[in-house]
Amino acid sequence: FHFIEGGFPSSNPKEIEFFEALAGETFENAAVAAFGMTRRKGISAEDDEGLRVLVESFAPVSTIVGKTWSLHLEKVTKVSREENLAMISDSVAFLSSEGKRVLYDAEHFFDAYFDDPGYTMQCLAAAAEAGAETLVLCDTNGAMMPSQVAAATAAVFERFGDAVRVGVHTHDDSGVGVANSLAGVEAGATHVQGTVN
């Protein structure tokens, strides 16, 4: 394992305790990653409490999740496409400027890609251009089939593979999580996220 994502340190006291315990540990191969999300709408990245927690964490890596699906912009965050792109870019740039390595988790990437590939690629470009070292394509619903993961990952790798690492994070809701991970790797992904409980 190259990364251990310990959790969401700004979400509750147990997460904070876990990160406090991890701060004293050393690992031969793994870097600790703290999880968070892009800045909230209407606030600067520097003033966003969740991003401040990531900056103040000892963890050298920040994994931030951002919206890529216009459905979520309309129904969940209620922000414009332009504001969402700014939220991604501002957050990644802020964390990078504070010395953090940034992994960008593109939430519901595959659903978003097959709905509107143009905008989904804009979201990835916003993260990459702001300094993300890895673009992680998330099958958040666990509903994709291997051929879909392969096609979308190949398209992302073709566009961004020379500039940043491409990753996949597949869920096993449909029983094909491992097959989807392998399909992503065969299509160019060199970073695979899994969940170990």
Walk me through this protein's architecture.
The chain is α/β, with parallel strands linked by helices and 197 residues long. 45% of the residues lie in helices and 21% in strands. It is built from 8 helices and 7 strands. Strands 1-2-3-4-5-6-7 form a 7-stranded parallel sheet. The mean pLDDT is 94.
Entry summary:
The chain has 8 helices and 7 strands; from the N terminus they run βαβαβααβααβαβαβ. It has 197 residues and is an alpha/beta fold.
Q: Based on helices, strands and strand pairing, what is the structural class? A: alpha/beta
Going across the major beta sheet, what is the strand order?
1-2-3-4-5-6-7
Shape: globular
Estimate the strand proportion: 15-25%
- Describe the sheet with the most strands: 7 strands, parallel
Q: Roughly how many Å is the radius of gyration?
A: 16 Å
Q: What is the average of the pLDDT values? A: 94
Number of helical segments with 4 or more residues: 8
The H/E string reads EHEHEHHEHHEHEHE
In total, the number of strands is: 7
Task: State the share of residues found in helices, binned by percent.
Answer: 40-55%
Which regions contain 5 or more consecutive residues with pLDDT less than 50?
none
First CA to last CA: what distance?
15 Å
